[in-house]
Specification:
It holds the Pfam family HET. This is Heterokaryon incompatibility protein-domain-containing protein. InterPro entries: HET, HetReg/Transcr_Mod. The protein is an alpha/beta fold and 320 residues long. Helices cover 50% and strands 10% of the residues. The chain has 15 helices and seven strands. A five-stranded mixed sheet has the order 4-1-5-6-7. α4 packs across α8 and α5 packs across α7. The longest helix is centred in the N-terminal third of the chain and has 21 residues. The relative contact order is 0.11.
């Protein structure tokens, strides 16, 4: 069997679905969204520098390019493989979107903290270095930045608030992408830092994080809270996941259910009948299939309600 080509998967905010830009890929032109175009431009610059140093090409997996979004059958098949895609990626790039002058200042500071810790302790001891001495190292980094910039602490504090307030942290697909990643970096503008360093930022800047944003930070690779957040690698219950993330956002309402299937145990071999990703059925049928699965009954036993929506189903989930 041919060995799998090493690749990096990308987690990003979709934004508008309008295909406004064009890229050259696979010998032909392909129309893409503005967010994908911006993402590829940023990553190309960073990866181009790494490829030159390493003398080889690097490969990216981007869902909007690798999955035909206009083909519901293909999309249904490919989305069922998302867990595998992110779990087998060499690394996942968590792209938070375009930079501002303040987010650049924040990310540069975190990058310098990361470099300082590696120089002092060695790359293999980065976690220990951050845990024991990140406060002092962070003060040194901020002091150096303060020689070039005014109001460094305030600007970095506000920048972290702004980044954590971005819609990327609200996306339901991000939950699976973060949970299944073996390794990852957080990317914004021209800066990228390890998840371990980014997760330390709220404590360093005295920023309170709660709700889904905290769950995502806790589940990032190398985060101190990852073991608890991901239940120690055990299979998760679909009802519990739907309950935990019932307010998460999705462009397609059906994804508020489908995006969580890759985090749960088998949805087929449990005697309840299959629960599979299927974009060829309407929203009401997705709700009906999900209720049948959760209740352990046949779909035929449930009346069909054409007005049923995923939003109303998740709102009423505690009463199920």
């Amino acid at each position: 069997r041919r060995p799998m080509m090493p690749y990096e998967a990308v987690s990003y905010l979709w934004g508008s679905a309008e295909l406004r830009e064009t890229i050259w890929i696979g010998g032909r032109w392909l129309r893409v969204t503005a967010s994908v175009f911006e993402l590829l431009g940023r990553l190309r610059a960073a990866q181009g520098r790494r490829s030159q140093r390493r003398g080889r090409h690097e490969y990216l997996w981007v869902d909007a390019i690798c999955i035909n979004q206009a083909d519901d059958v293909e999309k249904s098949q490919q989305v069922q493989q998302m867990r595998h895609v992110y779990a087998t990626a060499r690394r996942v790039i968590f792209h938070l979107g375009p930079p501002t002058s303040d987010t650049d200042l924040l990310m540069e500071g975190l990058w310098r903290l990361q470099m300082s810790s590696r120089e002092k302790q060695g790359a293999g001891s980065l976690e220990h270095s951050l845990a024991e001495e990140d406060g002092e190292a962070w003060r040194r980094v901020r002091s150096r930045l303060g020689r070039r910039h005014a109001n460094v602490w305030v600007r970095q504090h506000n920048a972290l608030h702004e980044l954590l307030g971005r819609s990327w942290f609200e996306r339901v697909w991000v939950v699976q992408e973060v949970w299944n990643a073996r390794d990852g970096i957080v990317h914004c503008g021209r800066w990228a830092v390890s998840c371990r360093v980014f997760v330390a930022a709220p404590e360093l800047l005295n920023v309170h994080v709660a709700g889904q944003r905290k769950q995502i930070l806790d589940a990032m690779p190398s985060s101190p809270g990852r073991l608890a957040a991901t239940t120690g690698g055990q299979e998760r219950d679909l009802y519990a996941m739907l309950q935990s993330f019932r307010n998460a956002a999705a462009t397609n309402e059906r994804d508020r259910i489908y995006a969580l299937l890759g985090l749960c145990g088998s949805t087929e071999d449990n005697g309840r009948g299959p629960l599979l990703t299927d974009y060829t059925v309407d929203e009401a049928e997705v709700v009906r299939n999900t209720i049948a699965y959760l209740c352990g009954c046949s779909v035929a036993c449930l009346p069909r309600d054409p007005s049923a929506t995923v939003r109303s189903f998740l709102s009423n989930l505690p009463t199920l």
